[in-house]
């Protein structure tokens, strides 16, 4: 018979005592397979976010019905035990107590985070629960106390040096030994995942079309810098040194990625283009045709990862007159920088991050530049974003107060997407008040501002649609004072030397830059594998929030990212540096488990509601 918790008075009890009592009750319910009792340990409005530990998926379940359904499907196999706090619990106010936790499952060691608060009867129950797989039992990374010895003390039948062994391995991989995982895309996402797979002993290759690791950054316009601060951007295993700039220039990031690839011994094939990929359902593997620096090769990976960032193919509008325009036209992803445009008039179509960066670099070099804003844009000043939105988790002050990158990542991950906007709205209310004069000047200049459909700001816009914002590092002031010319309107057509908007406005132009964003990542799948596979997977990115450019129904997690898809053996990996670091762990563990032949029953495989 299902038991229920007795009322507990929280007054006079420490946060640690409250958390300990809840963990004891929860573990007892799980150990006895009492799903009703375990479900009753949660508030009616509650959220359990699981990153691989229970579901072999990236999955959030909400409320009693979904929690009960997940436990019914997964509890017996998962066999969780050993729940405890990893550091003292904290009082978060409003009767909420929280703690970082650890536990084990039948196959893994796990960590997480829990928030509890009393229900109407005074019983402490879980409001949010995060559970994450951290390592697989028996397949731990060789690090710390178990790191490789390196030197050979005594006789060894293999007399090859480290360099010789590495050279032999590189010659054999892809020929004598097939990669279990092929990662297409060698930017920060592919490199981070490649490093994780290397440490886990999973045969893999990261391929990229550029000449060197880091060229994805080096070949962008010369003024590009990261807009996120350094504390948010560390890669796995090797954090940036203490003297690294807060906002790293693109060439410095490029050099770091190349250095990281070598030091972490990531199997990386540069100057390599994937030509096609086809999945053999019978054999359970891919046939991938590649061109490696002029040599045609065929690879047969079991798992294929598209690590092409969070974006798909460039969106370039098709309008009349593009064939008669006498000047230069290109997408922002191909923009070379301002050097070749002295004395020319440049029109930039768009008003998000890339558009602002490109316009600023152009006017800084004395080039006549006009930005065409087609719809409202969210702007947040870099200093305010760093101080108010990220400062508590990712800042020097946070580090000095004891915050680690891992704790910050788990804290951020512990906020379910369903209610994350409720935490973000007060942050952006504070920013809007702090920077009121700044926003007033922008609006006076004619710039159309927004803070998202529900005023929740940048992070929710990023998760929902991956566009529609700019972190201001100077371009906004240039718009406010008129240095960057601003016009509003929709692109109608081009003539030989003008851009014409829908209201008839004509803009003289020698160069047109389409800073018009990107499509869904499954566009790359369509190119490599055909439209049928792309449609089987469906849209990549977005939460299903039913806000602008993020159609419902509600997904609860980012569509198709870092988790199994409807196409067997196909995965998507990417995002910013933070996401490349954090979620590469869960993707690598899912791939490692399959490589070792572990049973990985996926709970809650995402349905396809949108094709692009």
Automatic annotation (TrEMBL):
Query: What InterPro entries has UniProt attached to this entry?
Result: Auxin_biosynth/cation_transpt, FAD/NAD-bd_sf, Flavin_mOase-like
Segments for region (Disordered): 147-169
Could you tell me where the Basic and acidic residues compositional bias lies? 155-169
Q: Which UniProt keywords apply?
A: FAD, Flavoprotein, Oxidoreductase
Family membership noted in the UniProt record: Belongs to the FAD-binding monooxygenase family.
Is Oxidoreductase found in the keyword set? yes
Any keyword Oxidoreductase? Answer: yes
Note the superkingdom of the native organism: Bacteria
**What is this protein's record name?**
Oxidoreductase
Cite a single Pfam family from the UniProt record: FMO-like
